[in-house]
Amino acid sequence: MACCWICFEECSTPGNPLKNHCSCQHLLSHSKCIARWQVQQAGKKEEKFCRFCDKEMPNWMDQMCGGKIEKNNPLMEFFYDGKKYKFAIEPGNFEHLKEQIHQIIGIDISKNYNIGFKVELNGEKLDLHGIESFDVASKCAAITYHMRRNLLIT
């Protein structure tokens, strides 16, 4: 019996089918499992392309929220030197994040700082590492913001 190569469950239901998301014939997965896996690959080639066959993967945001979300500016917390800072971000706009942190704290986060993001996606907490994961982290924040307020547009 076939199983999801990510969660290893054999369950395939009408609302959660096992399917191929790339050209690899024997790699079946649930849509939300492959989306979560893509999020965990934030900033790497595997976020958008299969690591085995190199085919472009489906957009993980479509898999996670089933449609478009309204534009919003979710809050992001930033910890530095023992203090916590909270401010609204523009999803996908790293330059805006850099400007805000520079204005508030006076540092340039693009130089010599090890940055990570703690995100929540469908109730699961994930750690994303590196500046290159900001795009995915900010989109996870936007999805979570909408899910908490039931503002998903399908």
Can you characterise this structure?
A hairpin with a 7-residue loop joins β1 and β2. The protein has 154 residues and is α+β, with helices and mostly antiparallel strands. The radius of gyration is 17 Å and the shape is elongated. The chain is 28% helix and 18% strand. The chain contains four helices and six strands, in the order ββααββαββα. The longest helix is centred in the last third of the chain and has 15 residues, at 134-148. The strands form three sheets. Strands 1-2 form a two-stranded antiparallel sheet. A two-stranded antiparallel sheet has the order 3-4. The protein has a two-stranded antiparallel sheet with strand order 5-6. It folds into two domains: 19-62, no CATH class; 75-148. The mean pLDDT is 83.
Question: Can you lay out the helices and strands and say which pair or pack?
Answer:
Layout: E1 19-20, E2 28-29, H1 31-40, H2 60-65, E3 75-80, E4 83-88, H3 94-105, E5 116-121, E6 124-129, H4 134-148
Antiparallel strand pairs: 1-2, 3-4, 5-6
